[in-house]
Amino acid sequence: MLDSDLVADHIGGVLRESLAATSEELLFVNPSKKAIEAVIGEIEHGSQPPVRLFVDEEPLKTLVDDFLIASSMAEFVATGTLQVRILDSVQRASVLCTDGCLVSIVPGPASVAGLTTTDRSFVSSARDDYEQRWQRAEKFQFRTPPLSRIDRTLAEEFGEKAVTDFDRALATLDTARGNGEGLEEVTIALLVAANNRELLYDISRWGEDIGLASKATFSRAKNQLEEHGLIDTEKVPIDIGRPRLRLILGDDKLERAPMEAVIEQAVSTLEDSSGR
Question: What does the domain layout of the chain look like in residue ranges?
Fold first, then answer.
């Protein structure tokens, strides 16, 4: 249990000390976007108790526009390491609830403080209130599938090389929002498919089946990549109906390049086209 105030260079330092001091679930009420990202980072490092985030919905929606963040959070929810519910009314303070104490987060100009109270009556009253509100609160519904499901189904449908390419693509990006901020998930999936010469029909059906995006979204993203010369297509005849399209990379140099180079070229091209 914490029994003194905390001061760190950033919110991650306060969070790390708070997690280290508790063996039970940690409840984080009204965390900022930076604080949510810090929670994700700490969970990724492992060896900490489960975390419950009691959040304001609007900043959370902005945060999960980034596929890297959304897929990680969805993964942690799926494994039971993280729970996320929506605050019914938003308070000004951000509060960590640990074993027998409350920590109020106070950002300063060059550091972050965690002001701690262990007064039994106050802590008990506050925790009871938060717990009652938590029980009534709505769970946040992640539209992005967990990374483990993406990797597993990619392997089942397209083989391990597609999984390796997808994971290497994500590792290349700092953000995955699209619109000039990295590449969004559908574009990444299409580039991986093109690098493996898969059919548009197959990758878009896979994406729709796992809840990544609709076939129409895949089709629009394919058209954009094709317009910018990043991918091309070949017609593949089938017994009945219109030929299907095989995705290929649009540049001979890219066909011989590692996945990281394909992603970097796509980011550069699409950022230039968006005026960034």
Answer: 6-136, 147-274
Could you list the beta-strand ranges (E) of 24-120.
Answer: 26-29, 51-55, 82-86, 94-98, 101-107, 112-117
| Cβ count within 10 A of residue 75 | 22
Average pLDDT over residues 163-170: 96
Model confidence over 36-50: pLDDT tens digits? 988 898 888 776 788
Structural domain 6-136, CATH architecture:
2-Layer Sandwich (3.30)
Reported confidence tier of residue 256, pLDDT bands at 50, 70, 90:
confident
**CATH architecture designation of domain 147-274:** Orthogonal Bundle (1.10)
Burial class (CB within 10 angstroms; exposed 0-12, middle 13-18, buried 19+) of 47: exposed
User: How are beta strands 101-107 and 94-98 bridged, if at all?
Assistant: antiparallel
Instruction: Flag whether the pTM goes above 0.70.
Output: yes
